[in-house]
Specification:
This protein has 180 residues and is an alpha/beta fold. Helices cover 37% and strands 21% of the residues. It has a domain of 109 residues: Glutaredoxin, CATH 3.40.30. Strand 1 and strand 2 form a beta hairpin. The radius of gyration is 22 Å and the shape is globular.
């Protein structure tokens, strides 16, 4: 046993020679890049993604599942992804609390999707099914659906109940975002 340990000590660690030293300019560049980027959790898989601010309008995609991070079809959330999305996103997050049996919710779904496409790079829109996850609805005191809640930096900034068309949704989000 001592012979094995002694032979292991004599062998150099192969990866140690291959690590290039970090230079100060690369550290400064990385810090500048991190300051001009945002953290966007993927509403589809929950992966955290760092996106350069300049690329937000180019429909960035998740590094893991390759779904659109903003501007795509609103994702259906479970409670875990819901919490991660509202807590970790640097962009405003609008959640549509809905249920499959709700007629006004069904009417508003395509309008909500149009609003999501219009707000690409400016906000993240997603949906939470209150029938499947009633505890999430109870947590936020949802008494009528559809209800949209605007979250900013992990906190509720505004809420609106009732079905709306895409222009009304956009006007509400824009007016409430300016207050947050």
């Amino acid at each position: 046993m001592q012979e094995e340990f002694a032979s292991m000590q004599r062998q150099p660690f192969p990866a140690a020679a291959k690590i290039p030293p970090l230079s100060l300019p690369s550290l400064v560049l990385n810090k500048a890049m991190m300051e001009s980027s945002l953290i966007l959790p993927c509403a589809h898989c929950g992966q955290l993604n760092r996106v350069p601010s300049a690329k937000l309008g180019n429909r960035p995609v998740c590094a893991t599942c390759h779904q659109a991070l903003t501007g795509g079809k609103p994702a259906e959330l479970d409670p875990e992804r819901f919490q991660k999305l509202i807590q970790r996103s640097d962009l405003p997050v609008i959640i549509d609390f809905w249920a499959p049996w709700c007629g006004p919710c069904k009417m508003m779904a395509p309008e909500f999707a149009k609003a999501a496409a219009s707000l690409a790079g400016k906000a993240i829109l997603a949906k939470l099914n209150t029938q499947d996850y009633p505890q999430a609805a109870a947590q936020f005191g949802i008494s009528g659906i559809p209800t949209m809640i605007l979250f900013h930096k992990g906190r509720e900034a505004a809420r609106k109940s009732g079905a709306m068309q895409a222009p009304q949704i956009l006007a509400w989000i824009q007016s409430e975002s300016s207050k947050a």
